[in-house]
Amino acid sequence: MTDLSKLHVGLTGSAEIIVSDAHTAPRIGSGRVAVLATPVMINVIEAAALDAIEKHLPEGNQSLGTHLDVKHYAATPVGMRLRAKAEVTKIDGRNIEFRVEAFDEKERVGDGTHTRVVVNVARFDQRVQKKLEDLPRIQQAWPQGLEIKS
Predict the structure, then answer these.
(1) pTM confidence score
(2) Is the pLDDT of residue 63 over 60?
(3) Which domains are seen in the chain, by residue range?
(4) I need a labelling partner for 64 at 20 to 30 A (CA). Which of 44, 116, 118, 138 fits?
């Protein structure tokens, strides 16, 4: 069993960026208005959650995002700083829940909840490799007409 005793409710983390053209919705492919893209805000939120807990995990373990429930309700223009904060609100076995918020230099622009699960990297990598080994069989059994089209 993985020792997660260094994790506790109340741990906090943060992350920030200065919004550039590369962070805008048209560049990310999530919209047409040249303001901070929601997927980028989510990335900064996840980075804040990582900042809160990764340094407290046992060697050979990492956390992976499994759930996000966030609202993005105000635009952040290019050139403005975006800062995300995450606070651990619940620990249930390997699952860690966070309250998350994102602010630009003027106002709060998003908030919600985020869940991560702690995994043993070696075991996780083994499962991913097994999935790749099974790929030819899976592709052969894949029903016709279910191709994902972009």
Answers:
(1) 0.89
(2) yes
(3) 12-141 (3.10.129.10)
(4) 138
